[in-house]
Amino acid sequence: MVRGTTESGIGQFGGAPASVEWGVSTATMPLYWMYEAVQSSLGPARAMAEAGRSYFKSPGNPLSQTPWGRKVSALCEVFERATRRYGKPEFGLPTTLVRGQRVVVTERAVWSRPFCNLVHFDRALPRGARKQPNLLIVAPMSGHYATLLRGTVDAMLPDHEVYITDWTDARVVPLSEGAFDLDDYIDYLISIFHFLKGDCHVMAVCQPAVPVLAAIARMEAEGDPYTPRSMTLMGGPIDTRENPTAVNQVAIDRGIDWFRSNVITMVPWPHPGVMRQVYPGFLQLTGFVSMNLDRHLSAHNDFFNHLVEGDGDSAEKHREFYDEYLAVMDLTAEFYLQTVDTVFIRHALPKGEMTHRGKPVDCSKITRCALMTVEGERDDISGVGQTQAAHTLCSSLSDDKRAHYLQEKVGHYGVFNGSRFRAEIAPRIHDFILSNEPGLAREKPAAKPAPQPAEPAAPVAAAAPDLFPETPAADSKPAAAKSSESKSSAAKPAAASKAPEPEAAEHGPLSDDLTRIDGVGPKLQQFLNEAGIFHFWQLARLTAEERAALDARVTPAGRISRERWVEQASRLAKADQPG
Question: NCBIfam families recorded for this chain (predicted)?
């Protein structure tokens, strides 16, 4: 899509652009004004409903104790909440737990531009506390505020210095601040990376996966020293041709002209952004709700019943969810239309046709910034495979700088929030960040001599007696009896110091491809080989003590248990058995 100007909305990248005309149709131009008129006309009715709710809920009113009184009060609250305009929620994260100690968290805007503030969750850590990695969470600019990622921030706070992009509602940005499109979004990201001096790891949730990948590709191509150390892309539309969803199909079927003619309107007075062309939040919210209308109607019916029955906990959960869900922001027309065209219609990034300020976005230039992708098995917004496609594009990254994880039994929201995110996804992201953070990753143990290729490996307990000092060796000799042999056998590889057991030969080749285990790359396979493990069956037969001892030596520690290497190895061993 061609804009009338190539200037950016951020000072250090060329100054604020002039207003850009995107061709608002006569049908959509008055739409926002009509919406504001309806909101104003409902004001008195909402005030009456709120007064009625208070009256019929007051303990001094005898009717409040009757079924009829509770129903009237509940009806008034449902009406008031269904017709109000919801403002931007707060993050509401006053404290967090760091290494067993509860510390105070203070929100601070440390970088600011017209369309975005960078918020730092400053933790009051005790003096002398060890440095933790800087994590930049790039929130989606897709309708909801950054507070939608409250749970994401909360889960990452104990182990990281967390920053988040807090995007500004376009209707409060004066037209004099200029336009803001996808190129400007990428400029903002590059500026933030410069502000953090590259000492950061990036987590992009959903929509920003594309601009984050593009920004890092451009920085790597230019040899920018402030390139982030790693990026984690979560449920993002990198290549929407992979397993397309209903959302993707709508964009393809309707085309960019339909969106320009039917969803773009102008901000009315008295908002500060009056006359700015936007994709308004209320239209986005209509789309969100219409996708699952039955579910929302049922939820409000249940809310009414909870109020009548006096189920305060259930009613409060409903309020908390919809206070967030119904709070939406306007997007600039240029950003929305360029994103739809570039990402969902032309598939410019995976085709190698995407540009930024006229320069190609070539992901094969990425060699320093590690890549992790996360997807949800039941994601109906970004289908399985769409985010993983980033690995194909980043063809120059080494295997030890890439990882992919598919979370079972979660939808789009569950990829970055909820119990499975906290228990399964967040620890993996933390491990990935640590493995790419200089000075924080554990030092690997000194390598042992490789086993002789002509002899099969013995079982792991015998192959690496130093790894499991609490486990008796296969010959069951006392420690004192074996100490005299240690010097003479020190120069020999542990796996070759014993004759192979007969059943070792029954498991096929001399070595299995351990990289078939999800989470094991060439370097980790080498680590396992150095520990005397060459076969799936050896991993599958580890005892709990042996697994714990091996887990302590992996960088970062705990991966074997979290990624279920033993269980995966067991399945692979069975699958490889003949017959």
Answer: PHB_depoly_PhaZ (TIGR01849)
- Give the sheet arrangement for strand 277-279, strand by strand: 265-266, 277-279, 331-332
- All residues at 6 or more sequence positions from 73 whose CB lies less than 8 Å from its CB, including other chains: 52, 53, 56, 57, 64, 307
The amino acid occupying position 372 is M
Q: Are 333 and 193 in contact (CB under 8 A)?
A: no
Percentage of the chain lying above the pLDDT 70 cut: 81
End-to-end CA distance of the chain: 57
* Displacement of CA 521 from its chain's centroid (Å): 22
Looking at the predicted structure, is the pLDDT value of residue 469 above 60? no
Non-local (6+) Cβ contacts of 15 within 8 A are 7, 8
- Look at residue 164 in the predicted model and tell me its pLDDT: 97
DSSP SS3 for 1: coil
Task: Kindly state the average pLDDT of the residues 167-192.
Answer: 94
For residue 544, which amino acid is it? A
Least confident of 58-62, 100-104, 149-153, 434-438: 58-62
Give the span between the Cα atoms of 82 and 93, in whole angstroms: 27
* Helix, strand, coil fractions of the chain, as percent rounded to 5: 45, 15, 40
Q: Which residues contact 268 (CB under 8 A, 6 or more apart)?
A: 32, 33, 36, 274
Which residue in the block uniquely carries the two structure tokens 């070595």? 511
Rounded-to-integer distance, Cα 115 and Cα 3, Å: 19
Above 90 in pLDDT, residue 334? Answer: yes
Section 230-234 average pLDDT? 97
Non-local (6+) Cβ contacts of 505 within 8 A are 456
Q: Give the three-state DSSP class for 253.
A: helix
Instruction: Report the C-alpha gap between 104 and 125 in whole angstroms.
Output: 8
> Looking at the predicted structure, is the pLDDT value of residue 107 above 90?
yes
C-alpha 21/C-alpha 264 separation (Å) is 11
Cite the DSSP H helix spans in 96-181.
150-156
Higher pLDDT, residue 526 or 293: 293
Query: How far apart are the C-alpha atoms of 318 and 300, rounded to whole Å?
Result: 8
Residues 266/24, Cβ–Cβ less than 8 Å: yes
Q: Which of 26, 27, 9, 29 is nearest to 17 (CA)?
A: 9
Retrieve residue 383's tokens.
């289908």
Q: Are 189 and 201 in contact (CB under 8 A)?
A: no
Question: Which residues touch 45 (CB under 8 Å, ≥6 apart)?
Answer: 79, 83
Is the link from the previous residue into 556 a cis peptide, with omega within 30 of 0? yes
Mean per-residue pLDDT, 187-191: 96
What gap in Å lies between CA 26 and CA 315, rounded to an integer? 42
- 185 burial via Cβ count (<10 Å: 0-12, 13-18, 19+): buried
Q: Write down how long the chain is.
A: 579
Classify burial at 480, counting beta carbons within 10 Å of its beta carbon; exposed 0-12, middle 13-18, buried 19 or more. exposed
Query: Which tokens belong to 133?
Result: 């990695």
Helix residue spans in 222-309 (DSSP H): 246-262, 281-291, 293-309
Residue with token string 């060459």: 534
Q: What is the pLDDT of residue 221?
A: 95
Instruction: Report d(CA 18, CA 15) in Å as an integer.
Output: 10
The confidence score (pLDDT) of residue 484 equals: 37
Residue 160: per-residue pLDDT: 96
pLDDT value at residue 578: 57
